[in-house]
Structures are given as structure tokens and as C-alpha cells.
User: What shape does this take?
Amino acid sequence: MGGVSAATRRAAVHALRMVFDKAAPALGATPDRLEAVDGHIRVQGEPGHKLTWRQAAALFGRTPVTAPGPTRRRPIPGSPS
Assistant: This one.
């Protein structure tokens, strides 16, 4: 079974938060009430109040969704400082 690095997980969670921030106004909810379930972004407790991923992505227009990488660089053993 494979794993996901901490940096990859942080980036994915950050990107999902960005999607929730964009989708929240369209769903009339706050981002903290949203969840990603079965290919949709929906309001928790209101399964009929949802957007598809395609609809949520369209809210970004041509703006890319980017997430920051690690903030600290670890030195590579044997490389100059």
C-alpha cells in the first residue's frame, strides 16, 4: 500500500480549501460547512445542495489552483550549503 508525503497531503488539503472558498458563495454556505463526497462539493447535511467538481472548477475561470510546497528546505547530504 502506498502513502502520501506530508507535503503532498498539505498541498491537497490547501487546494481543497481553495475550492471550498470558491464554491461556498454559490452554495449559499460558508466554506467550513462544505464537504467533498461522491464527485460533488456539497453542504454538510444537505445532500441535494451541491455542485459537481466540473461546476466548482468552472468558478475559477482561467485562474489556476495552486498550493504552496514545503516552506523549509532540507539540505541534501553531500551538497554544498
The longest helix spans residues 6-27. Helices lie at 6-27, 53-58. The first strand starts at residue 34 and ends at 37.
